[in-house]
Write a structure and sequence with these properties.
globular; alpha/beta; 9-stranded mixed sheet; 13 helices
């Protein structure tokens, strides 16, 4: 049996601790430890159910990058908060002291990235067994024979019990996520939300890969029966995970990928899907993972006696989540990779009800919409939100983008042109009116339109030019009600549609102003205009 304890241990990283170190435990061992330590409950059929406490999502305002000679001119500081090297050193000293006081620690050596020449070696040190299980599930697991010689390039120390001091550590609150690109270290304290770990690795790869000419992407990806890869960009709630889990296509991954000269490769070895209101009928592949040993369910309500799960109960969080190995999806790629994409799909949930269910984009329009990263919040999701509210998250993942968006946008445009990639904008939001008047786009229609786009048949359809956004919209697609293809026709009040569309156009234009000095004239001309 290969030695799972590496020669390059914690002491060589300057960590001195009397703690019992649990190195590279497998799933069963970590589940056992989690239950034994009272960190979670086993549900009916075997998944581990845990609670993350007061943090049920990312703490974006508590994330910092150390500003030093390495990052001064490479980080997009308008989007990323800075921490001084001195404050980081104080934080690191206190994290190391906290490690020295622990009785047990769980350590996992993992890869960020499935393509060997572009992956990063990551060591994760946890005080919670279920956190170690989570990150082992979400990242790429080395082969057993690779562990003894493992030497990390980045190290994550995750201590939910740590209480940060804003004065001493230069942070905002008692919660902190601090990234040092120079020291190749990420310190996470004061939050038990496990997603901070996986998104920190995503941020590291978003920093490291562009200088190598590799495009990092916040997207899902799958492969058709003819070997054609499709990438699905989209913010939370737009259908990125749902639409990529298609039984007729091979899943590469549901969230984070790189686009190299030879492949689209998953950064991860697992999936992290929303569980709220999950149904077996609508999402059978994802639902099946909730009946598997090895799945971790966060903040899903469980009956402590019967161990039955209630996916409709949002009393703990609207952001209930499930983490599971990608192999739990029956048609997942064993290699976690596919060929470079033939189709790019940008997903938006337009709560204004203005955008068509699908549109074809030119490369310039694709870059425009990629940099815009549009979706919309619906009324009632936040206090004070009574009308649909536009959300623009550049590159469909601004919180995870350390470099300027133009770096990623230019990489995307270059790769689209080089590979003659077809690009599509898909609206999974509202039709027949804005939120409150219209209804959600039927998922059957979305899937039919996507299938036509991905199998190439949609290119043979007749198209009209959208008067506001300038992209091509099909006028008829077999199996799809033609009425929904022209949003204006679905509104009872056409004047209201025109006013709402003009408002949305204005929001796009105002948002894009900050990018205009960074893009070519042809991209500026891809902007929407008043009809």
């Amino acid at each position: 049996m290969a030695n799972r304890v590496p020669v390059f241990g914690l002491a060589k990283q300057g960590v001195e601790t009397p703690a019992q170190l649990h190195w590279n435990f497998g799933t069963a061992q970590l589940v056992e430890e989690s239950v034994k330590r009272g960190e979670g409950l086993l549900a009916k059929f075997g998944p581990l159910v845990v609670e993350t406490g007061r943090h049920t999502g990312r703490s974006a305002k508590d994330k910092f990058i150390v500003r030093d000679s390495e990052t001064e001119d490479t980080i997009w500081w308008d989007n990323n908060k800075a921490m001084s090297p001195e404050h980081f050193q104080a934080l690191k000293d206190d994290f190391f002291a906290a490690l020295g006081a622990k009785e047990q620690l769980f350590v996992a050596d993992l890869y960020g990235g499935s393509q060997p020449e572009h992956r990063v070696r990551v060591r994760v040190i946890n005080e919670l067994a279920w956190h170690n299980l989570f990150i082992r599930t979400l990242l790429v697991r080395p082969e057993a024979h690779e562990l003894e010689g493992f030497e990390p390039e980045f190290t994550i120390i995750d201590l939910p019990s740590f209480v940060a001091d804003p004065v001493r550590h230069g942070c905002r609150s008692e919660t902190v996520i601090a990234v040092s690109m120079t020291e190749r270290m990420i310190l996470i304290g004061g939050t038990a939300y496990a997603g901070e770990m996986k998104k920190s690795v995503f941020g590291v790869l978003n920093y490291l890969l562009p200088p190598r000419g590799v495009m990092p992407m916040h997207c899902s990806a799958n492969i058709g029966p003819n070997g054609d890869t499709a990438a699905f960009f989209g913010l939370s709630g737009t259908g990125k995970t749902t639409l990529s889990a298609d039984a007729s296509r091979t899943l590469v991954g549901d969230d984070e990928h790189g686009w190299s000269d030879t492949a689209v490769f998953n950064f991860e070895g697992g999936c992290y899907a929303k569980m709220i209101r999950l149904s077996e009928e609508a999402e059978p592949e994802i639902y099946a993972t909730t009946r598997r040993f090895g799945t971790v369910l966060e903040n899903v309500v469980i009956d402590p006696e019967t161990r039955e799960l209630d996916f409709d109960d949002n009393s703990k969080s609207e952001n209930t989540r499930g983490a599971y190995p990608i192999g739990f999806i029956p048609n997942a790629s064993e290699a976690n990779m596919g060929p470079p994409p033939r189709n790019i799909v940008m997903l938006t949930a337009d709560a204004f009800g203005v955008l068509p269910p699908i549109a074809r984009l030119t490369p310039d329009q694709a870059m425009y919409h990629f940099l815009s990263g549009y979706t919309a919040k619906v009324a009632g999701t936040e206090i004070g939100v009574t009308e649909p509210e536009a959300t623009f998250s550049t590159c469909f993942g601004a919180p995870f983008m350390p470099r300027h968006p133009s770096v990623y946008g230019n990489l995307l445009k270059e790769r689209i042109a080089r590979g003659s990639v077809d690009c599509w904008l898909v609206n999974t939001g509202w039709t027949g009116g804005k939120y409150g008047a219209g209804k959600r786009m039927p998922i059957k229609a979305t899937r039919a339109l996507l299938n036509a786009a991905l199998d190439g048949s949609l290119k043979n359809a007749g198209f009209r030019k959208d008067p506001y956004f300038g992209f091509d919209v099909p006028v008829a697609v077999p199996g799809v009600d033609a009425a929904i293809l022209n949003p204006r026709d679905t509104w009872a009040d056409k004047a209201d549609y025109d006013a709402t569309a003009a408002k949305l156009v204005g929001l796009f234009i105002d948002n894009f102003a900050k990018f205009e000095t960074h893009v070519d004239q042809s991209v500026k001309e891809a902007a929407p205009t008043a009809a």
